[in-house]
Structures are given as C-alpha cells and as structure tokens.
Design a protein that fits this description.
About 40% of the residues lie in helices and about 15% in strands. By secondary structure, it is α/β, with parallel strands linked by helices. Helix 1 packs across helix 14, helix 4 runs antiparallel to helix 5 and helix 10 crosses helix 13.
Amino acid sequence: MKVLFLQRDLPCNGNYGGVATQVHDLANALIKIGVEVTVASISGKPEDAAYEHHKIELPSFVNSSRFLKRYLLGYYFKKIDKEVFDVIHSHGDNFLLFGGRPQVRTFYGTAFMEFVSARTWKRKIAQLISFLLEWVGALAADYRTAISPDTARFLPNVNRIVPCGVDKTVFYPAGVKSENPTILYVGSVYDRKRGDRLLGLMPDLRQVYPAIELIVAGPERVNGAGITYVDRPDRSLLAGLYRKAWLLVSSSDYEGFGLPALEAMASGTAVVAVENAGSGYLCGNGKYGTLCSKETLFETIVEHLGDSDKRKQIAANGALRAEEFEIIKVAEIYREVYAGVIKK
C-alpha cells in the first residue's frame, strides 16, 4: 500500500508545531507496520524521517508572502503527480483535490472555533476563510477523520474520530521531578492558547510558593520573576522538560485535542487544563487530568502543587490515557481506514 501525505510543515529547522510533529510521527509509525509513505511538504526532510519526502518548491513571490503561502498551497498540492499512490491522506489544504485517487482528510481542530476564540479581527477573518476552505476540503475527500468529537461537530460528514497519538519511545516517565515546584507551559502565549493568562498568575503564585518556576516553551520570548523561557525546544529537550515538571498547565480557551497535554501524560506528569471541549475529551472529563474554569485556575494550581499524592494519582491516570493513544495504535487505525477507502 502506497500513501501520499500532504502536509504544509514538518518538524525541522526550528518548527515543532503540533500538526507537523503529529504527521511526522504518524508517517514513521505507518512505515513500521508496512505502509509505504511519502510526505509532500514545503519543509525539508527531518533527520529521523523513515518515510520518503517530496519537497514542494514554491515560487519566490509565494514563499515571501504569508498570505499567498497560506491560501495557494492547495494549488501546488494539486499539481503533484499522484497516480503511483493508492491513497492520498490530506492533513490540510486539500480544497482543490476533487476526483482522482481515493482521499482521506484529517481535521486537527476546526477554524470555526479558532474564529470564535481569536483575539483580533484580522485573525478572525483569516480563520473564517479557513473554515470555509475546510468545508470544501471535507467535500473533496472520500473519507474524513477528526481528532475529537468537538472538531467533528463543526464539519460535514466526518466518518470517524481518530485521536492524535504519542510516540512513547520519546515521551516516557523517568528520573525524579524538579526539587522546587515547577509548572510547564507549551505553546504560543498571545493567541487562543492564552499563555498570558498563566503568566499573569505568577506574582500571586510566588506569594504562595516563592521558589516556583514557570517554564514556557514556545515561539514567543517571555520573561519575568520565576519564569524561564525555552525557545521552541526540539523533542528530546521537550521530553526532558515534561519529565521534570510537577504540572503541565493548559490555559487555552480552545483546543482541538491538546497534544502537549497528551505528551505530558505519557511523560508521567499531571495535567491541569482550563475546561474546553478538546481538553475535556483528552482528559476524560476529569478522569485523566484535572479540568477547571479560567476563574479557578489559580486555586487549582495552588492545590495541586501542595498535594503530591494528588499529582501522582493524576499522573498515573494520565499514563493510562497515553497508552490508549500510542502512535502505533493510531497508525493501525489509519491502515484500516486506507484499506476500506481503497476497497470502496
């Protein structure tokens, strides 16, 4: 079985975004179970990629424009010769791919909820356009998967919920936690992930725990008393940060799924998340991680930092969730999906 992945970015050259990493891990896992995978993207090929790679060379006028790169990539995906492949698996930008080879489309969230949670009108407009293109892409595909029930709720004809997966050869519990109370935050700070909400709690948290450290791993540099910034760590470094942290805190208004929380669960770290549909799905509505409101985030963090037994129990429950979502199991689901699409 030969499968072509279509994906904008891959985890290399400082880009370690959630979808890019997820597509890379899934492609590698499919190779392990006997599926031939080629990934077409505008990124280079990651060093640990076991799959074939087709680099899309964009014209300079497109490559230099964020707007054109965002909305013209579908045209360059359409130009790829796909006849040698049994299945096309689109991870985005498939709105021009009508007809041709059997096609699976995976939705890693929905631009509609990005639109709702956007904090500027410019971003709202961009996400609304993206949402319309998601609908077109859903209609172009023969089979549609979504990473959570909430994602499926806003899109037409989703056939199956297939969650994100975690590579447990990278993310696993080991060693001891940091000596002082340590919170890890992974992601952007000033968008719908609302990392600034957590930053704003630090002065009060330091009143309760003077030695507390907040580690922020992401693309936007931040500073402040008790705050350590790590600029877009690679996965080896990130895995170490998960293992040492006392808590992984997600302060997001919206998550399609919440990959950092899953990686923290696999690494033996308790998760605290502001309640939203994606985080609720991953955390089993509180069974595998603690959910709270944005108003009670401070009290919830204080309580968890002060109760080691509670943290250990939540971490143990989270490890069970991570077992369900191991990447090789996700790959086996997709192999089944591909076989069904080909047969149909």
